[in-house]
Design goal:
One of its GO terms (molecular function) is hydrolase activity. The chain is an alpha/beta fold. The protein has a single domain, classed as Metallo-dependent phosphatases (Purple Acid Phosphatase, chain A, domain 2). The chain contains eleven helices and 13 strands. The strands form three sheets. A six-stranded mixed sheet has the order 1-7-8-9-11-10. Helix 1 crosses helix 5 and helix 4 crosses helix 6. The longest helix is centred in the middle third of the chain and has 23 residues.
């Protein structure tokens, strides 16, 4: 596998420490004293929201090179003048990788004796995750990666997680590949990193989670998500047809309070056909389109307009 395994192990170890030591000022502690499931974003700087990544390793580097009001996003992060929130799902290529997954499944059935397709998939996944970990280590208060349903390297059916299979048996295949080529010790460390990820980010007048909430949850239960697997499941696995009507609207009031003007809930998970899907009755904006690379800018200095502030990430200039 064409990836620096020593560096990857170092990053996983370091990012886990960062997550375990996040300050209560931006990540309230749960009942056991650990950083909880909610991120409190700064309300006086722009927020860049990133949809499901699914192994698209150039997405974040291209976003960091995006110039906003005369400065690159990378520079804004360094100067603590912007924050980036990813909605999760770092691994497992989607539509672009469907044919590769089918080939990789045959490799899996042969115990990965010869596995160029699966190796290519996992290289993309870990390159993507390495960038995420580097950014979290460097900018702990200003870069956040929320847990999605694909953050389940154990492929477990517990703790709010479910085994994943779409084009093949992606969850099972990923676990088997990691165990064989990186070892059970790495699998364990990586899995513990996933367990430390938050579920929700709160801005001034917006909320971000991987999936729309399945039902209404209290803020305390989200903070104490380790005790409530149904909260983990409900904020990472919910499809539109399973969501309780009105849950997003009520959750916006619970998380943000009443009395504000327009409020929005941003989520990925459910594939859409355009740059975004606005469910007006819920104040829900969905941004996961595996064919495109949309991102959202929420700037406190002007009202949010999805037609103006949901854009495509341009490729970096050579």
């Amino acid at each position: 596998m064409n990836i620096d395994q020593e560096k990857l192990r170092f990053l996983v170890s370091e990012v886990r420490k960062v997550l375990e030591q996040e300050k209560a000022t931006w990540r309230p502690l749960d009942a056991s004293g650990k950083p909880g499931g909610v991120i409190l974003l700064r309300t006086d700087i722009p927020t860049f929201i990133v949809p499901d990544l699914h192994g698209r390793q150039e997405f974040l580097p291209d976003l960091l090179s995006y110039v906003y009001q005369g400065r690159k996003v990378q520079s804004l992060l360094e100067q603590k003048q912007a924050q980036v929130v990813c909605v999760g799902d770092g691994m497992h290529g989607e539509l672009r990788a469907a044919a590769r997954w089918r080939v990789a499944y045959e490799e899996y059935q042969n115990d990965f004796v010869d596995c160029p397709a699966m190796t290519e998939e996992m290289e993309e996944n870990f390159q993507t995750m390495a960038k995420i970990m580097e950014l979290k280590i460097k900018y702990p208060q200003y870069f956040h990666f929320l847990k999605g349903n694909h953050e389940n390297i154990f492929d477990e059916n517990s703790n709010g997680n479910h085994s994943f299979a779409k084009f093949a048996a992606e969850g099972m295949m990923t676990r088997a590949f990691v165990e064989k080529f990186l070892g059970k010790d790495f699998l364990s460390i990586y899995g513990s990193f996933e367990k430390e990820l938050p579920l929700l980010a709160r801005g001034r007048d917006f909320v971000i989670s991987h999936a729309r909430p399945r039902q209404v949850y209290s803020l305390q239960n989200i903070i104490n998500h380790r005790q409530y697997p149904e909260v983990v499941e409900g904020l990472t696995w919910t499809r539109d047809n399973l969501a309780e009507t009105g849950a997003v609207k009520r959750m916006l009031e619970i998380v943000l309070g009443t009395g504000l003007g327009e409020k929005y809930w941003f989520a990925g998970h459910c594939p859409i056909s355009g740059l975004y899907n606005f469910v007006e009755r819920e104040s829900l904006i969905q941004i996961h389109n595996p064919k495109y690379r949309p991102f959202v800018i929420v700037d406190p200095t002007f009202p949010f307009n999805p037609e103006k502030h949901i854009l495509l990430v341009p490729k970096r200039r050579a």
